[in-house]
Amino acid sequence: MARPQLRLHVVQAAFGVALLVLLARAGQVQLLQGSRHAATARSQRTERVELAARRGTLNDRNGTPLALTQRVYRVGVAPNELADTNHAARLLSEELGVPRAVVRRELAEPWAYFHGPFTAVQVQLLLHVRGVYPEAELVRFYPDPDLARAVIGRPAAEGRPASGLERILDSVLEGTAGSAVILRDRLGNMIESPSGLGAFPVAGHDVELTIDAELQEIVEGALAEGVEQYDAAGGDVVVLNPRTGEVLAVASVDASGRSAASVFTSVFEPGSTAKLFAAAALLDHGLVEPSDSVWAEQGEYRVGNRTIRDEHPNGWITLTEAIEQSSNIGIAKFSLRLTPEWQFDQLRGFGLGSPTGVEFPAESPGILKAPHQWSGTTPASLAMGYEVAVTAIQLAQAYGAIANDGVMLQPALVREVRAADERIIYRHAPIPVRRVVSAQVAADLRSMLHGVVYRGGTGETAALTSYELAGKTGTARRAGPGGYIPNSYTASFASLFPADDPQLVMVVKLDDPKGVYARVTAAPITRNVVERLLAAQSAALDRTRLTRPRAPASTDAAIAAGTVPYVVEWPAIERADSAVLRSVPDVTGRSLRDAARVLHQAGLRVRVDGWGVVHSLDPEPGASVAPGTVVTVRAAERRPR
Amino acid sequence: MTAWLLFVLAILVWVVARQTSAVVAAAELDSLRNERSLLEARRAQLLRRIRSAESRAVLIPHAESLGLRLPADSEIVILSAPEGEDR
Fold first, then answer.
1. C-beta atoms surrounding A178 within 10 Å
2. What ipTM does the predicted assembly reach?
3. What is the DSSP pairing of strand A414-418 with strand A424-427?
4. Where is average pLDDT lowest: A216-230, A367-381, B32-46?
5. Pick from B40, B80, B83: which is nearest to A120 by CB?
6. Which chain B residues are closer than 8 Å to A194 by Cβ?
7. Do B29 and A143 touch (CB under 8 A)?
């Protein structure tokens, strides 16, 4: 009996020991190692993921999106999980647009991956297919990838550095990533965990640029045509609003038609476009009146060991004529009245030799030597636009000061920055840099620029028929590593439009055009841009301030042919004596367009009431009225009888 | 004892209901996210088509094929809007 009792005790003791061991182990696992095992378990069933923030949108000044962020997908496939491989292969091929053979080859691997990126539309039918794992990703999308490409630039991606505005505005656009904890089941499938959100991602700010997309397209088109037509090695165009400093369009291309950002980064000797700065210094210091003259040596003038030549020899020439006819000798002789310090200060004042401060990376400051580095011929060279180098944006900024009554503004590419909740973070306001010349001197300079185009100057090829622009041509020899390159020139044209109340400043520059002179290359490109802009609906131009057109040339022809009984001094509208009354032309029965043209030609203003064919006028036809009187034109649709 | 059982059962039902509603919300969130992506993709597609269709590179050849041309500046007459009226 004792033996069974002993065995029972032994068994009980064994169970007791086992229980103690179990308890000890449980204590070790739970109490001593509990936190470590809990962390391991948590890490196996949960995963902390980063929630990418949406990058802000880049819009043009009218709200047209230029760059926005889009969710795209890359697709991974586990072939061994597919229920029907043939069906999946067909679906993948059809939806993703990948050739069937490629899909089959990929599906033969243990893990297939289609890099894409694919849009949500493409992966829509694949989202719920077992074994197909689309991975979402936010990428940059450009509705018109070629528009202002170099200026907008691209964000950094796959080892490629960021460029352009995407680079300089990166901290504004990028936003703040969020985080979340997701659960995974034992198969590794992700389970959305609503309580596991760490922080919401904060979208980046939206940026409205000063660029006008329509004008940008016009400028890019005209420049590309110009580069091709004149077989140039490249070119730049920049258009800005002189009253605000806003850059409205900027385009650069090389000979292969590739977009560049050389408006901000590439320098050139401005040539005759810089003669205006010498004239500004002379006028501002009261050293010369526009009508003062110098002897222009009949086309050849020796300064030190250098001979200066004029394309068109002149005798006595006024400062105004020196600018209009782009006389090297004239401006060089006038500039002798300036001290080097005055000349340097004036060029510095116009912003030469220092960056404009526009929001673009790696902007070049240009080149302007200090007076102690000058040689004996430097003053004359500077007056003619040599021994100094500028970027196109610097030249536009300097001409902008002349358009803006002598006050230079900092050019700007960013108009507004808005947070994702529509809060305005920044709004551009004109930033005056300094007063460069007095308002009177600026007006005198604008008058000279007007003469360049309309008084037989070098810019006649830029002249429009009805609306006036002012500008200055510049043709300068191109420098290479070994000095000036034979027969190679930079042609530029800096202009203000309209001439009397400039809304736009435009600089057109061509590198090594085959037409050589700016008057036959850069100036016609300017005219093309303005003509196209006038015909477009772009808001870059305030048309309500363009209601006093120059009378069209066709009227000149009519006068010459003797078809009109009297001749008025030209231009009729601006110079007409307000005391002389005129009769209202009878334009009833004409189209609204014809009626408006005739009334404008008669020096009257037009108010339109209705659309279609003109049926009555107020004042009535034949009534005597003063020039500038508003004539109400009543029109109605002609109805079929 | 019955009261305790009912209490435990009620807690379990509440937990299950909460979990179910969370899963439904997560599925709905996922579906809305997909729908948003889909709409964004369509918007991007349409934007690209609009920008292409209204570009000068497309419009001008089309207009020229219809016998139209770019007007000279002398042919452009800008009409002033009547004062004090919005059109």
1. 16
2. 0.72
3. antiparallel
4. B32-46
5. B40
6. 22, 25-26, 29
7. no
